[in-house]
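Weekly puzzle thread! Below is a chain. First person to post its structure in token form gets bragging rights.
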Amino acid sequence: ERPAGRPTNRANPEMMTLLREQGAEFGFRSGWEVPNWFARPGDSAGYQPSFKRTNWFEPVGRESEAVRDRVGVIDLSSFGVILVKGKDARTQLNRLFANSLPQKIGEGRIAHMLTPSGKVMSEMTVACTADNEFFLVTGGACDLHDIRWMESNLDSSSDVLVENLSDEWSCLGVAGPRSGQLLSSVFSESDFLQREWPVHSHQPLSVKLGSTQLAAPLVVRYSSTGELGWKIHLAKHLVPSLYAELMKAGEEFGVHQFGSIAANSLRLEAGICLSNEINCDYTLHQAGLEDHVNMSKGGFIGREAVMKEVGLGLRQKLVMLEVEAGPVDAHGVEPVYSLHRVIGHTTSGCFGYTSQKSLAMAYVSTLFLTPGLELSVDLQGVRRKATIANSPIIKPYHMHS
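Winning reply:
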């Protein structure tokens, strides 16, 4: 972390004050201040740089346990938000995304824009909010990148407006087995838990704050932790009030704040890919996300390359590794060996607090995909034993019968 020039001008000062009062230790993410973890009284607070597990390790364990067992709240203000609308919006977006678009208002899904060579340009959550209107949510720092790609590939004569709302909208994530109970206690809609909530579906709701009502125009049923959860998108200036209300109401349910380090650990155990695994170096088939490609819907950018890849077969594929790491976890871009031969590299890694295992995702040669196969990963110059594991390590909520 670099302290100069902080906090940045994209930060929400009121939200930062609220989070800092609760012990937030912030990280810098492309102009945003992101809570990495939360220190409690008695913890060793502050930034202590190290390639090994340092002062955040035990507190992050608390956060992960809270999300797995009860409920956690995370500030996701760095998410990019893009509104696309116009009479040609559906037609144009259908050409940009490899997956089918949601058909009905209230539906949503994960979709990817591909390069002409079939690699992943971007992953987004696509929500249909009105006829020919779509609310796109992308990763932190990806909004300008994604808008440039979209505008350079839209038909210039089409009736489509692309609007960047990232600095006006913010997001809070609520996740864990008691997340539904917490949200039911703060939303004005008394039938919240009785409503149908398919994964990625969304509804407009409101929050009761004393005698006032706070509008939450887009509440999405999804959490990248792998647990039951929702993401609440609303105007930036309203986020501090909602956050304070969630933490107050959540005391009954054992709520705990959690930051980006815990979120990364939770998603890795759940086998959920992020930008380290899906980007312009890899394809969806390599990442095991071929279910997000609809070859029958017609033409989209990258379709011919995907067909060619399917016909020729894959040379590399993403796997999960359990690493005997000692005090050093993988972070990404570490070489993976079979005996003395480099067969791939890690994309991300961390300690999984539920499984009590050091985990890493890695792209390796398709000759080395068998679960239980022993490999090794170079961590700070030391070869550490790594075993190919079945993914996910912890089954996500939506995979439970």
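Puzzle host: Confirmed. Bonus trivia for everyone else. The mean pLDDT is 95.
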